Amino acid sequence: MLLFILPALLAVFIQPASAAVNYAYAVDIDKAMTASTFNCFKKSGYSAVFIRAYNPQGSGLFDANALNNIRNAYSTGLGTEIFMTPQPKSPKTGAVQFKEMYDGLKKDKINIKTVWVQVTSPVGWGTDSKKNLAFLNDIAKTAISSGIKVGYYTNVHDWNQITKNTPITTPNTPLWYWNTNGAGVSGETPANFNDFCPFGGFKKATVKQFGQSVSICGVVGVNRDVFDAAELKNGTIVV
After folding, report:
1. How far is CA 214 from CA 15, 76, 153, in A?
2. Name one GO biological process term (predicted).
């Protein structure tokens, strides 16, 4: 099974906020979902799903829920993205954590092209930005050596606190940023990129998370995202 996840390292980026964009909706999840739930997402107007494949619990571990989630989402025709929430305070290196995720997917014959690395919740990271960057670079180098592209899920505040706003060194690195005013529908911000401002070397946004912990299809705790609908081709985000 091959998941085409943002192939070619987003060689053509989503247009900046000033351009006319027809936005499509996505959800991101970190728990097991049934096939009927993914089907409900699809019928409710969502075009893609971001699925967690690495769990930061304890010292970090492969999220086995990802296997069925990926297959169910893929079979429903949803664009399927993978993200990892690493555990930076673990005795395991970033490379080891990435390999645990990669091998867990590969063992089940799931091949990925891109992984999004979550860089949020500064309280869960150390205070030494150089060590934090070394940890992230360890993940990125290992991913790239495995033929996997790397994007980041973060925002200006998280990136500043965790990396001291160190610019990303790889050109055209994709960004999935978040901006909400709290949990639930009342905390949602506009479903567009109009609030995006460049930071940390990220000049453009690819995806925005605009809602957190909302209830969709009877599932509580789902997050909502938007991306350019023009980039969705045959159930795959191609940008």
Report:
1. 27, 22, 19
2. signal transduction
d(CA 173, CA 234): 24
Kindly state the tokens that stand for 198: 């460049």
Other C-beta atoms lying within 10 Å of the C-beta of residue 214: 19
Q: At what angle do helices 94-107 and 65-76 cross, to 10 degrees?
A: 60
Structure tokens, 43: 């019928």
User: Distance between CA atoms of 201 and 164, rounded to whole angstroms?
Assistant: 12
Tens digit of each residue's pLDDT, the chain (239 residues): 445 343 332 322 333 344 567 899 999 999 999 999 999 999 999 999 999 999 999 999 999 999 999 999 999 999 999 999 999 999 999 999 999 999 999 999 999 999 999 999 999 999 999 999 999 999 999 999 999 999 999 999 999 999 999 999 888 899 999 999 999 999 999 999 999 999 999 999 999 999 999 999 999 999 999 998 776 665 555 43
Bridge partners of residue 211, in order along the sequence:
224
pTM: 0.89
Beta bridge partners of 125: none
Distance CA(100)–CA(230), nearest Å, equals: 34
